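User: Reviewer 2 asked us to show a designed sequence for the structure in our supplementary figure. I'm pasting the structure tokens here. Could you produce the per-position amino acids so we can include them in the response letter?
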């Protein structure tokens, strides 16, 4: 059976079906809707769900034969859906199970996302990843992995690369006052400005 996208209307229990085509399939989100991606051969492990601005995007939906893959773009998802209207999106499971029941995993369905889903992380372009079994969260380097100078390692008061902190440096500069001129100061060379070292 070809992949299809089902749209459940919570008001009257009706179900609309969208036959997926290769490439982008756009669906305008309306209030009171739940969604299910269904295919007898669907493997949810292949899918990736993203938040792109106010849209929710399901990628890598396999199609029959050599038709390639499809994506489903739920336009305005994050403008319409809310805590009281969560617009759950599920995939797979027993086709005889109703879409509302599939949200809770009945029939083996997988919850891909709803409006409360927290991102797993972000891509380089700032797009949020909501569902992707293959996604690996980037590991930030620990402080000990960043090169530091010998004196800063000994003192460890501030990381060398941010010494002095910009706020501290700005505050210190604001506190500097030029001394009032005297006969002695006029004959003396002006003081040389120096920057304190953390070491």
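Assistant: Here is a per-position design you can include in the supplement:
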């Amino acid at each position: 059976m070809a992949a299809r996208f089902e749209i459940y209307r919570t008001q009257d229990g009706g179900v609309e079906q969208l036959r997926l085509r290769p490439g982008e399939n756009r669906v305008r989100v309306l209030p009171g809707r739940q969604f299910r991606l269904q295919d007898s051969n669907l493997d949810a492990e292949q899918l990736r769900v993203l938040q792109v601005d106010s849209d929710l995007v399901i990628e890598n939906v396999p199609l029959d034969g050599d038709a390639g893959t499809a994506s489903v773009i739920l336009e305005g998802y994050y403008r319409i859906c809310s805590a009281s209207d969560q617009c759950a999106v599920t995939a797979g499971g027993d086709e005889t199970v109703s879409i509302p029941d599939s949200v809770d995993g009945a029939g083996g369905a997988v919850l891909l996302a709803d409006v409360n889903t927290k991102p797993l992380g972000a891509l380089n372009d700032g797009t949020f990843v909501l569902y992707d079994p293959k996604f690996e969260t980037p590991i930030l380097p620990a402080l000990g992995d960043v090169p530091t100078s010998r004196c800063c390692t000994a003192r460890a008061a501030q990381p060398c690369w941010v010494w002095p902190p910009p706020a501290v440096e700005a505050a210190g500069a604001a506190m500097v006052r030029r001394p009032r001129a005297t006969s002695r100061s006029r004959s003396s060379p002006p003081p040389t400005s120096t920057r304190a070292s953390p070491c």
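For the response letter, you might also mention the following. The longest strand covers residues 55-62. Helices lie at 77-80, 99-102, 150-155, 166-175, 183-187.
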